[in-house]
Design a protein that fits this description.
Immunoglobulin-like; 38% strand; four-stranded antiparallel β-sheet; binds 2-acetamido-2-deoxy-beta-D-glucopyranose; cell membrane; C2_dom
Length: 356
């Protein structure tokens, strides 16, 4: 029930095409060219007891087994990992997986620990019992760790995959480079988004649901996005109208290259809305940095009534700030008119349950 205008902007020249290019190409080109992160980019985090230069990669394949309703991550091996024991040039590595955000509390999965090696072979399947529609709204986080005898595990790098653009028919092995963690504090300044929204209560050409209207979301531009990558970022905006997190509900802008102040000028249209739905729904806009295979969440906002509830159910995502609620209210109170605002972007991954 959703469509984007103008349609030429909706062509996924950004993420999807680029991504499928990687998915269908001959991976042997990538396999033997694992970039090493230079010595100056060292991952230093409080939770890591030793900091190592991130290097090497994970070889894996993904498969959704419809019969079992299971998502399988087949971890083949890691190659050329960083040595935590630098004297003896070795680590005790294992691989861990998360689906993020994790409102359903599916939790982590881990492989076995392989001792004294920088090139561990696992051939293990990490399994999640999960519906496909849910999976399509998740990011897969695969990370490599050194298992220390004294419980002081060290981070060896991670891979993030946006499963919403993954080709699940592709079950080939991939070997992707590990990356340092992107580190943004919940309180960090994440820039701002200028947008306009309007509610058209009576759309005569809306044939699907008679007597219903449309919500238009015009993402104009963002200012001062956090430069989490050196020297710059490639931002795009993703939109869901919650509680619907299915693919139908998802719309994206194109990816803009090398800018922290992107001008998107992209309008998204959602139909099938009646006035009473506006109290229960919430428009979630998130800004992402497209970084080759991995996407990093920069920040977001949620437009809704901020009541903590949707259709009588307690939900964490109905958490709009006062400014966000104010813009949504202005839209509800002035049908057919654009209302505009410049809103700060914030941490939005904290949603803990019911992303059904
Ligand atoms: C991929 O490239 C390798 C090495 O160049 C080659 O041996 C192989 O046949 C190619 N595979 C396909 C499917 O093109
Ligand atoms: C550490 O071991 C790897 C192979 O496991 C080797 O390629 C690398 O050169 C060694 N590094 C040092 C500093 O000895
Ligand atoms: C990925 O998972 C690892 C291990 O739990 C975690 O340390 C890291 O912060 C996660 N990355 C993101 C982007 O959530
Ligand atoms: C990992 O380290 C913990 C101690 O922190 C130890 O109890 C556990 O046995 C180790 N795992 C393996 C598989 O060696
Ligand atoms: C995946 O394969 C199935 C059946 O083989 C097909 O119906 C579907 O369209 C394919 N999906 C993609 C994204 O290629
Ligand atoms: C935004 O797009 C509209 C057409 O959809 C166009 O008329 C307008 O000039 C654009 N504005 C900017 C700043 O690009």
């Amino acid at each position: 029930l959703s469509k984007s205008v103008p349609s030429f902007l909706q062509k996924e020249v950004g993420s999807f095409v680029f991504f499928s290019h990687w998915c269908t190409g001959n991976y042997s080109v990538l396999y033997f060219h694992l970039p090493q992160v230079s010595g100056s980019v060292v991952s230093v985090y409080n939770s890591d007891y030793s900091s190592v230069d991130i290097q090497g990669g994970i070889q894996f394949s993904l498969n959704y087994v419809h019969k079992l309703r299971e998502f399988h991550i087949f971890v083949v091996q890691c190659q050329n990992l960083a040595a935590v024991d630098t004297k003896r040039n070795r680590s005790d590595p294992y691989v861990k997986s998360y689906l993020i955000p994790d409102p359903a509390n599916l939790g982590k999965r881990k492989t076995a620990v392989k001792k004294k090696t920088l090139n561990p072979t696992y051939n293990e399947i990490l399994r999640y019992r999960v519906r496909m529609e849910y999976l399509m709204s998740q990011v897969l986080n695969l990370s490599a760790w050194h298992n220390d005898t004294f419980g002081r595990n060290s981070f060896l790098g991670e891979i993030e995959l946006d499963l919403s653009s993954w080709d699940f028919n592709d079950t080939e092995w991939k070997l992707l480079p590990l990356k340092p963690r992107v580190y943004l504090q919940p309180s960090d300044f994440r820039g701002q988004m200028r947008l306009a929204i309007r509610f058209l209560p009576h759309i005569s050409h809306s044939k699907n649901i008679p007597g219903s209207g449309e919500v238009h979301i015009w993402v104009k531009d963002c200012k001062n996005l956090p430069l989490i990558r050196n020297p710059t970022i490639d931002p795009y905006v993703k939109c869901f109208v919650l509680p619907d997190t299915s693919k139908k509900s998802r719309q994206k802008t194109r990816v803009l290259k090398r800018t922290a102040n992107p001008i998107f000028n992209h309008t998204m249209v959602y139909d099938g809305f009646r006035a009473e739905n506006l109290k229960e729904a919430c428009v979630e806009l998130t800004v992402w940095d497209r970084d080759r295979i991995a996407n990093h969440l920069l920040g977001g906002l949620r437009l809704g009534m901020g009541t903590g509830k949707s259709y009588g159910i307690q939900v964490d995502w109905m958490d709009s700030t006062a400014e966000e609620v104010a813009l949504w209210r202005r839209m509800v109170e002035s049908p057919n008119e654009w209302v505009e605002g410049m809103l700060p972007l914030r941490m939005v991954t904290a949603a803990k349950n019911t992303w059904k």
